[in-house]
Amino acid sequence: MTEPHTLIKLIVLYMLDKVDFPLTKAQIYDFILEKEYANYFALTQATYELTEGGLIESSSTHSSTFLSLTDKGRESLAFFKNRISEGIRNEINEYYEENHQSIANRMSVMTNYYRTAAGDYVADLTAREKTEDLINIKINMPTEESAQAICEHWRENSSDIYSFILEKLL
To answer: For the whole model, what pTM was predicted?
Structure first.
C-alpha cells in the first residue's frame, strides 16, 4: 500500500503524463479535490515537493499556473506507476477521455501580460497546436486594463485573428 502523500504525487505525475502539453494547476487540483484523493494543503505540499525535486516544472501567467512533467518525473512515474491503483488510473483515464477536447482547447490559446521598464504593458498572446506555437503576438498597451482586455478578447477571437493574418500574408 502506498502512503497517501506519495500517492498524491504519483497521481499528479500520472495526470501530467497523460497529455503532451502543460496543464493548469487548477485543472489538476479540481480533479484531485473533487475525487477527494487529497485535501488542498496536502496537494499544495505535494506539488511544491514535486517542483523542488525537479519532477515537474511550473510556469505562471497573469491568470494561471501551468505544470508540466520533466524527464526526471517521467522516469520516476515509470518506476512507481504500479503503486497507483487500477481504479484511480481508470478514473484519470476516463476524465481525460471525457474532457480531452476542452482541456486541449484551454491549452491552445494562452495569454499573459506584464509591465515593462518604461511603465507600459505588453499583452503576450499565443495560439498553439500541441506543443508548437502557431502564432505569438506581443502588443504594447498604455494601461494594465487595456492589456487585460486584449488578453480576454484573444481567447474569444484567436482563431479568426490567426486566419485573418494568414489570409493577408499569403
So the answer is: 0.68
